[in-house]
Design brief:
This protein is an all-alpha fold and 110 residues long.
């Protein structure tokens, strides 16, 4: 009986966790003026992972919106749209900043 209750608890906990959309934290970018090649490569991997995680987050937000459908609370839907736009803006900002760091790294190599 305890095993069955434990499995029910684990299953219901995973459903609650799956229902949540968690926005990923932005990575720390390397300083192109001082970073070595490996730090730049690691930074690129971190940015790619961040973009992938943010895209999954956006998909989650979109699915929440689709689930709510016509019955969606207008305020909640507006909040989801604003959060979606903020996440896209941050993702573009991080990618742009990393590109700036790459340019600085390449400039110091000349």
């Amino acid at each position: 009986m305890k095993i069955i209750l434990g499995l029910v608890f684990v299953f219901s906990s995973s459903l609650v966790a799956a229902a949540e959309c968690n926005r990923p934290a932005a990575p720390t970018l390397p300083d192109g003026d001082t970073a070595e090649l490996q730090a730049m490569v690691d930074g690129q991997k971190a940015v790619k992972a961040y973009v992938t995680a943010t895209e999954a987050y956006l998909d989650c937000l979109n699915s929440k919106s689709a689930e709510a459908g016509a019955e969606a609370d207008p305020d909640a839907e507006l909040a989801r749209i604003e959060e979606h736009n903020a996440a896209v803006d941050e993702m573009e900002k991080i990618a742009g900043e990393f590109n700036d760091e790459i340019r600085e790294y390449k400039a110091k190599a000349k």
